Amino acid sequence: MATTTIWYCSTCGYEVAGRGGKCHNCKEPLVQSPLEQLAEGEVEDEVGYNLDEWEDVARGELIEALNASGFRHRFEGDELVVAAEDEDDVDHLIANLGADHEHGDPTDMVPGEVLTRLADAARRLELDPTDMIADGDLAEAAAGVFAIDVVWGVDDETWAAIGRVTRRLLGALGADEALEEEISESATLLSRMLRDLEGVVPGFGEPPDQPADTAATAGGDVDAEVVGDAGSADDDEEGDDEEQASGQEDEMVYELEDWRPEERAHISLMLERGQIAYHWEGSDLVVGAAHDEAVEAILAEVSRTGSDGTAEADDETRYLLLSDLFGAADRLAGDPEHEQKQEDVVMLATMIQSWATPFAVSDDEWWKIRLRASDLAESIGQHASRAVVEDGAVNLRDLLRKFV
Length: 404
Description:
By secondary structure, this protein is mainly alpha-helical. Helix content is 50%, strand content 9%. The strands form three sheets. Strands 2-1-3 form a three-stranded antiparallel beta sheet. It has a three-stranded antiparallel beta sheet with strand order 4-6-5, with no helix packed on it. A three-stranded antiparallel beta sheet has the order 7-9-8, with no helix packed on it.
């Protein structure tokens, strides 16, 4: 039996059988599917998913994810049909796409859309930390980030790091005093981290062009020298001998497995600013030995400031902000669905996470305060029920009462 070629539009989220061409809606070229369509009656048991309330871009992301994962399927109108044996895997894939499309909640966004909006707002804040429109756009995109637990193609550690840097940027934007330098630096770091996800998360950016004979460099903007270019063997023979004799000796490897993803991204950013060529081998940083002093200084700087570059607050500032957090938690307890009151708590809860234990507060008490504040911020970010948010706000307020 002859097979039918399937083409799809990743933007408008539909598949067609037959010849390729351009999408009738967005006019973009259709993409040929790498998989044969799952024929009706081909397998004994099938499972259907109703996608009638999904946005076009979300359907497009799902099609790309199904193809990338090798799950054969077909569409019957708005229903996606897969083999029953693939049901658990497809359930997990849809969950990893990160949005509850079945309920059509307008506050939900798929990861590709979230990251596109987040990256755009971060770039604008990087250029102009006083951009109030970008400020609001980043806060809206951040709500989508905090509502997504897992993302297809992104490891949990990296996704958590993006959330931490986003919260830190929100904290700087919400501070009473002007923190333009901190806003710009945090926005730059967030942009740098998101750049590595372009082409990885469906719907976010395009895969970079990587010719087969060119080595990719983790730094993105850092040019890597190609040794032994084809067609110039005679001219480069002497240089090749020198490279073989000393190439390995001219490299330094720094094992940074225990460093957070945002700290490694911060290191990449500073190396790029210093025009120091480098690459990553997993969590190991590889640079030329001639730059060892500069790299050591960068590592010390990142280690000293932390991944967000925020200086430690003094005791007086800590107590003032703890008082503010108490008041914010108290107000939220009385009105747990108020968005501005939620944002106030998230901002303050985020700011205290990197502090050392304040004077006259025991380590155990400080640990409990940070834990409850973090739990409440996470509940807000995940759009938990009114009762959960209210209970978290009450518990945090009661814990802080003795310190204010």
